[in-house]
Amino acid sequence: MAALVAYTYKEKLPSLNLRVKYVRNTSNLQNIPILAMSGYDKAYLATAMMAGANATLHKPEDLENLTTMVQSVIGSTTAPTIQ
Fold first, then answer.
1. Quick count: other Cβ atoms within 10 Å of Cβ 77?
2. H or E element: which one contains 25?
3. What pTM did the predictor assign?
4. What is d(CA 3, CA 76) in angstroms, rounded to the nearest whole number?
5. How many CB atoms sit inside 10 A of residue 62's CB?
6. Could you tell me which residue, 62 or 47, shows the higher pLDDT?
7. Hey, what domains does the chain have and what are their CATH numbers?
8. Which of 34, 2, 39 is nearest to 20 (CA)?
9. At 20, which helix (H) or strand (E)?
10. What is the pLDDT of residues 34-49, one digit of tens each?
């Protein structure tokens, strides 16, 4: 199983949430774990969680947790968590 890591970089922030919603609304992709990342306001990450992300990381301060979070999201079968 693979994790989808969605992030924004110099693009419109709604695209992060659109990507998460797309995966959650596509039948053959619905079960893919999603780790959303952004360097913008953490409110955008909260919105990504509401859109269906399993977990979030705020750049740059959370990047040291990237490997741990990907492993956690891949093994997770529980409700999403926010960092």
1. 7
2. helix 14-25
3. 0.71
4. 11
5. 16
6. 47
7. 4-75 (3.40.50.2300)
8. 34
9. helix 14-25
10. 888 888 888 888 888 9
CA dist 9 and 28 (Å) reads 27
- Judge contact between 39 and 32, C-beta under 8 A: no
3-state secondary structure of 5: strand
Cβ atoms of residues 44 and 16 within 8 Å: yes
> In whole angstroms, what is the distance from residue 77 CA to residue 60 CA?
27
Torsion region of 52: left, alpha or beta (phi above 0 gives left; psi -120 to 50 gives alpha):
left
- Given this model, what pLDDT does residue 11 score? 55
Q: What DSSP letter does each residue of 53-74 carry, written as one string?
A: -SEEEETTTTGGGHHHHHHHHH
Q: In this predicted structure, what is the pLDDT of residue 33?
A: 87
Q: How far apart are CA 16 and CA 7, in angstroms?
A: 6
- Per-residue pLDDT averaged across 17-25, rounded? 85
